[in-house]
Amino acid sequence: MRYMMEKVGHVLDLFSFKHPEWGVSEISQTLAIPKSTTSEIMASLATQGLLARTEVGRYRLGWRLFHLSQVLLDNTDFCIEARQVMRELVERWGETSHLAVLDKGQVLYVEKLQGTPAVQILLSQIGGRLPPHCSGVGKVLLAQRSWHEVTSMLEEQELKPFTPHTITSFERLAQELEEVRKHGYAFDHEEVAVGLCCVAAPIYDQDGHVLAAMSISVPAYRFYPKQDTYMGIILKAAHCVSESLGYRKEKPKS
């Protein structure tokens, strides 16, 4: 039973934005599972609505997963609280706001709201994943971990250069994360996409643990002249969400 459940998880993990559709033979070869077993797994998932079979006999993710994802988001406190603050943020400033968590060593975008004047950001759609070293939200989430955890998490991943500005060395990343811990926010200066910047801040629970990171993304030509303003905006927004979750920042002792 455990073996079969693991295989089911591995099958579902294969579906992505880049590869949204799979055939039985492809999955059998990719995961080194007997074709008969693969066919049985995928037919069972389709029966449950977790996969949907196409007219040519291939498979895509099923709509039941969408329903389950909405149940998760609508019953996760920080998502509920963050969504309202993000709406106000986008309505007032007209820029894109993201909410992300760290999952299996990658940034997972769980919410994205976009204002009318905002640029289209294709890499960060809801459900999308990015390596954590190159984004503001990723650096905020990494900064809450020990350096040992960070290196263990990233040692199997290359510090991929998305642009000429992307951090590609562990030494530089360590320095950056130290700055994030010190100041409580992280910048992305055109590190994921040329011409796009962002600043991110952590969301804390009542015990002071970081649950997620929230960011505001702005075209570089608008961001650089008002970098401090956008930094203040996201710090205030993230703190508002944290407070609604019961977080109370300790005041320094006099």
Automatic annotation (TrEMBL):
<dbReference type="InterPro" id="IPR036388">
    <property type="entry name" value="WH-like_DNA-bd_sf"/>
</dbReference>
<dbReference type="GO" id="GO:0003700">
    <property type="term" value="F:DNA-binding transcription factor activity"/>
</dbReference>
<dbReference type="GO" id="GO:0045892">
    <property type="term" value="P:negative regulation of DNA-templated transcription"/>
</dbReference>
<dbReference type="GO" id="GO:0003677">
    <property type="term" value="F:DNA binding"/>
</dbReference>
<dbReference type="InterPro" id="IPR005471">
    <property type="entry name" value="Tscrpt_reg_IclR_N"/>
</dbReference>
<dbReference type="InterPro" id="IPR036390">
    <property type="entry name" value="WH_DNA-bd_sf"/>
</dbReference>
<keyword id="KW-0238">DNA-binding</keyword>
<dbReference type="Pfam" id="PF01614">
    <property type="entry name" value="IclR_C"/>
</dbReference>
<keyword id="KW-0804">Transcription</keyword>
<dbReference type="InterPro" id="IPR014757">
    <property type="entry name" value="Tscrpt_reg_IclR_C"/>
</dbReference>
<feature type="domain" description="HTH iclR-type">
    <location>
        <begin position="2"/>
        <end position="63"/>
    </location>
</feature>
<protein>
    <submittedName>
        <fullName>IclR family transcriptional regulator</fullName>
    </submittedName>
</protein>
<feature type="domain" description="IclR-ED">
    <location>
        <begin position="64"/>
        <end position="247"/>
    </location>
</feature>
<dbReference type="InterPro" id="IPR029016">
    <property type="entry name" value="GAF-like_dom_sf"/>
</dbReference>
<dbReference type="Pfam" id="PF09339">
    <property type="entry name" value="HTH_IclR"/>
</dbReference>
<dbReference type="InterPro" id="IPR050707">
    <property type="entry name" value="HTH_MetabolicPath_Reg"/>
</dbReference>
<keyword id="KW-0805">Transcription regulation</keyword>
